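Title: Prediction job returns without error message
Component: structure pipeline
Severity: low
Priority: P3
Assignee: unassigned

Description:
Job completed but the reporter wants confirmation the result is attached to the right record. Sequence as submitted:
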Amino acid sequence: MEEVRNRVYTLVEILKDSSLLLEDYRSGTFKMHDVIRDVAIHIADKEKKMLTIRSSDDSEKWSNMKKMKDSIGIALFEAKFSELPERLECPHLNFIILGDKENSLPIPNHIFEGAKNLKVLVLMRLSLPLPSSLSLLQNLQTLALLECESEDLALIGELKNLKALVLVGSEIKQLPIGIRQLTHLQLLDLRRCTELEAIPSNVLSNLKNLEEIHMNQSFNQWQVDGENTERSNARVSELDNLLRLTTLCIHIPNPNILPNALLFDRLVRYEILIGPDWDWYWDGNSLVEFEISRTLKLNLDRSFQEEAGIKILLKSCEYLDLAPGKGIKNILYEVDMEGFPQLKHLYVRNSIEIQYIIDSIEFQCVAFPVLELLSLVNLINLEKICHNQLAMGSFQNLRKLEVRKCDNLIFVFSSTLLGCFSQLQEIEIENCKVMSAIVAKEGKHGIQVDDDIMMDIMDFTQIRSLNLEGLPNLMGFCSDADSQALFNKKVAFSNLEKLFINRINNLKMLWHNQLVPDSFCKLNQLHVDQCENLMNIFPPNMLRRLQNLEDLQIRNCNSIEEVFEVKRANVDERYEKGSTQLRDLTLFNLPKLKHVWTSDLEAILIFQNLREVQVSKCETLKSLFPISVAKSLEQLDSLYIDNCGLMEEIVALEEGLETTTKFVFPRITVLSLQSLPKLKCFYPGKHTSEWPSLKSLTIRTCEKVKIVSMNELSFPNTDELGHHVSVQHPLFFIEKDTFPNLKELNLDWNETMNQTYGRLFGEFFCKLEVLRLYGKDDKLIAVPSVFVEGLRYLKSLSVSNLFFDNEGQYAGMFERLTKLNLSKMPKLMLLWKENSQQGRAFQNLESLEVSECGRLKILVPSSMHFRNLNILSVRKCHGLISLATSSTVKSLVQLKYLTISGCKRMIEIVTNEGEGEAGDEICFNQLNYLWLSDLPSLRSFHLGNRTIKFPSLGYLRVIGCPEMKIFSNGVLSMPKLKRPRLGENWERSCNIKLLPEEDVNSAIKRNWEENYDTCVQQLFTEKA
């Protein structure tokens, strides 16, 4: 196996070097470009006699019997086929890959009788009994069942020449005892077999040629030697007999049953978890499945010193996750006295006794010479990372340091040891209650903060990312009695790119007013969140250091009044005007913010690269941009402003400006203004604006603003005495080409718009494709037909809390409509009139969602047909007794998603039309998802006797339907449904595995009898 692995790695690297394969973000994996894949498949198909079928479009290849007979390989990837050939006549066939997207493809018993030379068989996502002809494949060397369901794997024991058995992700509870006969087996892969509970005793010990065992997220119920139980399970000691074993991935919850130390000494690679509480994840990410390193997770509540096997693993491991037990005060040298010479990643967590990671008073050796990552989590008594001096070469390769929940740690680095961490690139310090500084000078009685301490500037040259979060007592990065700033004049970050500061309430200033030259000049991202006492973000001395800043986010800082602070003295200084790369600006919940920037800033910085601006919950902000900034926003793509209670204009008025100002936003595509109750205009002075690229416009809950006007006003800004007077300016002065590309409009509709705009919207927004109109809960307003008539290109329409003035007559106006959403329309009784001539209008409708329309009696009349409808959702429409007639649902040939909830009076989903008998059939060919919930009157999906078929249904939810004791009275077919979810409410519902020969009707009846108590059953029975 080792030779094969090395050969594969070599081939992959050769293909990468030739650009035929691409690097992937996960170690041990790669990607392939679609074009390369297609060319490779074509060559394999035409020249190498390999048959590849990726979809039902390739189904004609099955019928080419000569080609199949000559093939050496067949790969069927998730193609939809109703059946496979009864028998493959392929004497030259070496490998087969069969994958079923729907998990329902049956495999004929005799399929492999004509393919006895098969060496590799891969079956993916199949629910199967193994075909009996499998036992004929005596040349088979590799068998892989990937994410399959099978209750009986006994046939595998007859494949005597099998070398690799892979059962990744399959639903199996027990390995068959016959596997012990596979004496040539070299690889056993049981990853993600989460239901595997039993491996019979002595099965593993009999597989003498095993080289690799993988049990990640799988079996861990090892039996203790000498223990008698009803079911004899595998013992860890059986692994001692596997003298060829080089790769082992297992979890041993009981640390008292470790295998012999010699086993560990033979291992080349391993992932071993020892202790009861471990999982197969590193910080939320699954351990890499494809490239196995020497990984050890260790949780022992006793001394490690006497465990020979543990000592071997500690000396060789590269990734160590350690939860030290009682009596352990430090990692070096109580756990290991040699300094962990090969360790690359160290995680230490959840200890109440650890005081130091390194205590070098008694021992001196190079500590962690190749360590790249150190993570310390929940060490509540940790006092220092390093106690006393370190040997030269210690931590010389450390790139990342994480410290979290170390509530006794006052500082991270002693100033005398900084030289050992010269390669550090990332620092994350979070939730350490007493930490007062990151770097400190130690004295006899704790931290020294005299003015003459640390006179030399400390340049953290390699640090690229710094994250400080949840440090309530932090006074500064360095201990300094003379500074209130986080970063004082003694530190320099010449290459820092990312800075994240969160929940540091002592913080009043970020930057000292005398920083080291070039410090912070490469800052690219700055995120500040929940710093209660912080007054500003960028003082004047920082402004010229922002030339590389691209992403700025300020959130939940209650004291911030200004983001970019500019004083007149700074403006008068003779500096060359600079530009910033700022692209994304987010300001959220800054209740005292008065200015983002002032007009004086123009003399120092230009913001011509802004792409996205989001401003939310800045209650005292009266305007956003000074006119100088607004006129430079040539790259702005999107602007979002919401919940700013005092905002009156977007661009502030520049006093003394008499001429008309022209605003051009050539690239802005999205403009959203919401919950701005005092907003009056875009700019209060004389101006024009152009929005040639605007595609989406949202204006909601802006009661004082007039949205559009056709006539340019004369802007009388002063009265007869020369006093300034306010003028009601609209947001936009529009002509037919004002919004040439506007496709989406989200708007609050009111009576004033009815009276003022009329046909105006239909004329000037005639290219709209998406329209969402919202009324008010306390007053219903009609949408006029003159508005709707011009929207011939509309594809998506959503209407809430409104009604149409001519109900049922709009259908003919929406010939291109693909999505319709109607909610909170209490007057709505029908969507369109029965037998109207407008049915063609909805021929393209793909999604229909209707909610809280209490008077709606008929959703879909029998005369309507929706042949393109994919999604149908109905919620809280209490006037509906049924969803549709049997003839109507027959037209829903593309329906894939159907959800009905909260309709109190609905008795059945499909109702009879005329004399429907048992011979009639209703087929939902494409329906994959059916959700029925909170329907207290629902008795059945269909009360008639028709046959109902759901050939594609994979998901069924019936929840909160207490009167539903049967799904349908007629014949019912759901061949792909495996686990319907049933129950009286969501919390008490569960996925129910259908028993053999059980259909949904039986499951619903069983669920009803098990989950509704006797009194409820009797009540519903009496009502029926």
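Comment from assignee: result matches the submitted record. The CA atoms of residues 750 and 775 lie 7 Å apart.
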